[in-house]
Amino acid sequence: MSEINNPNQPVNNKGLAIASMVCGIVGIVTLCIVYLSIPLALLAIIFGGIMINANKTNPNKEGRGMAIAGLVLGIITIGLIIILSLFAASGAYQLSNLM
């Protein structure tokens, strides 16, 4: 039987892991552009979570490291956005009290 039609051949699902890592990296690099950074961070978290769950049954565990990296970068990006938003709100509040 040919390799193309073999249903028992392991499937290479590294695409979601690569997408997760790329979205996480671009999300953290574009931290100042909030409208771009938030969706990329969310996509990194979603793709990383899907890939980690898909790798539970895969004996090769290909792409697991990239999926974890994307997941962590997405979480860090969301955390930094929240912290920076709180600092901006606090600064605006203090500035309004001075006037």
From TrEMBL:
Superkingdom per UniProt: Bacteria
UniProt keyword terms in alphabetical order: Membrane, Transmembrane, Transmembrane helix
Residue ranges of domain DUF4190 in the record: 16-84
InterPro entries in alphabetical order: DUF4190
TM spans (from-to): 16-47, 68-93
Keyword Transmembrane helix applies: yes
One Pfam family per UniProt: DUF4190
Protein name in the entry: DUF4190 domain-containing protein
